[in-house]
Amino acid sequence: MSTMKKIAAIAGVSTATVSRAFKSPEKVSVSTRDKVERAVTNAGYYSNALFRNIKRTESRTILVCVPNFGETFFDDIIKGITEIALKKDYQVLINDSAQNKGGLNPFTIARQIAGIVFLGSNFPLNLTEASRQYLPPIVMVNEFISQFNLPTVHIDNLAASFNATNYLHYKLGHRRIACISGIESHLFCQNRLQGYIQALHRSNIPLQKNYIIKSDFGYGAGAQSFKKLMALPKPPTAIFCHNDLLAVGAIYQAKKQGIAVPNDVSIMGFDDLKLSEYIDPALTTVSTPRHKMGEKAAELLLAHLDEHKIAKGSYLLESSLLVRESTGYLKKPEFGIRN
Question: The HTH lacI-type domain covers which part of the protein (predicted)?
Answer without folding.
Answer: 2-56
